[in-house]
Each structure stands twice: as structure tokens, then as C-alpha cells.
Amino acid sequence: MTPLHHIGNLVRELLLQVPLPVVRALFLAVPIVLLIWVLRLPREVTTSPESSGRAGQNLKYGAALALLIQIAIYSFM
């Protein structure tokens, strides 16, 4: 076996020691943190300066909705 096989086996053994509930929590934590970040963005960053009317609406609400749907789906996995 090459040295890369030994490194790969070591990494695999380390990752197998992580409990599945921890993996699930981390899997859900990433989109939750992203949702918090998106909701905290200022309005000037999420709208176009030349926009007018509905076409230039604040995009963070659509992104937040997409992240909420993603979190809901991931929570059932």
C-alpha cells in the first residue's frame, strides 16, 4: 500500500468516530447560520441601486425563504 492509502485509512477511521447526531447538527447548522447572515444583510446590499418597483425588491426575503425550505427538508433527512 502506498502512503496515500495509509493517510486515507486514517482519515476514514477518524471520521467514523464522529457520532451521527453531531453530523446531523452540523449539517443543519450551516444553512441556519447562513440564514441568520442573510437576514442581517443591509437593504442597500440586497437591492440594486437602479431598481424601481417590484423588479428591484429586496432579494434577501427570497433567499431566506429558500433557506427555510432547505432547513425543513434537511431536518427530515
What does this structure look like?
The structure is a single chain. The chain is elongated. The protein starts with a helix and ends with a helix. The chain is built from 4 helices and no strands. It has a domain at 19-44 and 53-77. By secondary structure, the protein is mostly helical.
Query: Roughly how many Å is the radius of gyration?
Result: 20 Å
Overall morphology:
elongated
Q: What is the percent of helical residues?
A: over 70%
Order of helices and strands: HHHH
Low-confidence stretches: none
Task: Provide a compact summary of the structure.
Helices cover 71% and strands 0% of the residues. The chain contains four helices and no strands.
Note the main attributes of this structure.
4 helices; mainly alpha; 77 residues
Secondary-structure blueprint:
Blueprint: H1 3-16, H2 20-40, H3 43-46, H4 60-75
Helix pairs in contact: 2-4
